[in-house]
Design goal:
Chain A: This is Malonate decarboxylase acyl carrier protein. The complex is a heterotrimer of chains A (99), B (267) and C (280). By secondary structure, chain B is α/β, with parallel strands linked by helices. Chain B has ten helices and eight strands. In chain B, strands 1, 2, 3, 4, 5, 6, 7 and 8 form an eight-stranded mixed β-sheet that branches. In chain B, helix 2 runs parallel beside helix 4 and helix 6 packs across helix 7. The radius of gyration of chain B is 18 Å and the shape is globular. Chain C has one domain: 2-enoyl-CoA Hydratase, Chain A, domain 1 (Alpha-Beta Complex). Chains in contact: A-C, B-C.
Amino acid sequence: METLSFEFPAGQPPRGRTLVGCVGSGDLEVMIEPGQAGKLTIKVQTSVNGAEQRWQHLFARMFDGQTPSAMAIDIHDFGATPGVVRLRLEQGFEEIGHD
Amino acid sequence: MSSYSLRGLHWFNALSAGAKPVDGLPASLKVADGVVGEQPVRFIAVVADPDNRFVRARNGEVGLLEGWGLAKAVDEIIAADADKSHKRAVIAIVDVPSQAYGRREEALGIHQALAAAADSYARARLAGHAVIGLLVGKAMSGAFLAHGYQANRLIALRDPGVMVHAMGKASAARVTLRSVEELEALAASVPPMAYDIDSYASLGLLWETLSVEQIEQPTSADLARVTECLSLAIGDVATSGRDLSGRLGASNRAASSKVRQLLREQW
Amino acid sequence: MTDLLNKHSFVELGARQRAKALLDTGTLRELLDPFQRVMSPWLARQGVVPQADDGVVIAKGSIGGLPVVIAAIEGAFQGGSLGEVGGAKIAGALELAADDNRNGIPTRAVLLLETGGVRLQEANLGLAAIADIHAAIVDLRQYQPVVGVVAGSVGCFGGMSIAAGLCSYLLVTQEARLGLNGPQVIEQEAGLEEYDSRDRPFIWSLTGGEQRFASGLADRFVADDVAQIRQQVSELLQQGLPEQQRSRQADLFLQRLARLDAEPQIDAATVRDLYQGERS
């Protein structure tokens, strides 16, 4: 298991918070809460070691060319594929957006 | 050399010397009405019955007959003392290697039989009977849940053969996808995973841990010591509540208290 | 939300969604929600990723207008196994529900059981928590019903199958399995001849929901449908305490077992024959 931290430039914090997913095999739990203005922080606890670069790339691609809101994201990952990670994050962003 | 433990039987015989045996129960149950000091008590032990009709329960395992039989033995006491102000104590002598693992057991609902035993012990406790668990050997998993774990007070003898656990090492290794060696290494650093009684004591679940001279066959000094401890435990129950809150408070079980406190605040 | 209401399968819902699906609309209030991050103190140090709610959802609300606390186990997280925190959440909630009743508030409980039993990484603390859960069910059950639901797909095993046996009422579906010992463990302990853990039809025939209902070890057999399960749970809660608690029938079951020829290996039909008869 590894714990990783990431940070990206961001806009204003969202109002709501949400949780999607579950720490089941091949899945992950994503918790999104309002963070500090200007900063998007992501903390990942993952069962897969040595994947820091992959997480970095995945997040960088997702936030490329946009200013995400200032979220504090907590991820508990149980070996999800990048596709599932992306799906869960988008699901979470959508729920936050609807608040 | 027998293939099963005789500790439970020996301690039952020693403690219940002069007590009145209770019949009408499966042969794998030893039940007698006697005294501890001045206090009237019912002693209950699950012992090996090599002729058990259920072949997977011949080595002292808690199976179908044992679960329902324990329920009956405890229910009798609850009913007999229902109108009395002073309720007899129940002493569960615990030396149970496991629940019974078998096709007949699962098919016939061993979970329901064990539920019946836990139910009766819990109701005895709620009705005001002191229920004391005396651990003289193994206290494993479902067997312990059915016979002993509903006690107000747990007393363990300090010996390598006295152990509480959720699963035997081989099976636990298989289920958690570890080797037995890895499991043992983890157990050494994670108290709830350990198999020894001192690690278990660090969880705060025991009321007392006692050393004896001869765990297999108690000496008269051992008997005196355990009898005194049982007396104190019965007295202690009388001065405090009927629930299991006495098991909370150890630093190795801090989260159990914290969760309850937070739930209460948010209730 | 609209998405959730359109689904009919209960089994495929997660623990939180299940709780929401059973409670009267708008009444759910979760206690110790995941954002409070009360997680297992034991998993991370063994290299196992924790879950924010430790796999147990405690939700208060009402069902058919009656005050209820639901404890829902998330079967997808560590096989629904109970560790210290998840176990204490269930035990603590049941203890508070019993206190409510002593204070004149008739809180009932519903347990959504998808669990392999003790979480072996927290072994003795899981076992202790399950003993606390047993104690709390027996206490609460004096006042108000405790309804157990085994919907599937994990099933209900280990010490929590004993908890299921203590419930006032037990509701199962076709997808449910209920047994003390998991098939793998029985095979490990007793051998392939006794119990072949890979023979799924055999295992379902003995421990599946339909068989448990047909042999009187469960009270309701319901289709995997949210509306039907909610309806049945609501009925059971309205019904109040059962006339006869299943786990208090020692004489009856000892008589039945005495009638059984325990020599030959057993099959599902034998169990039904032996246990049937009392169902109205």
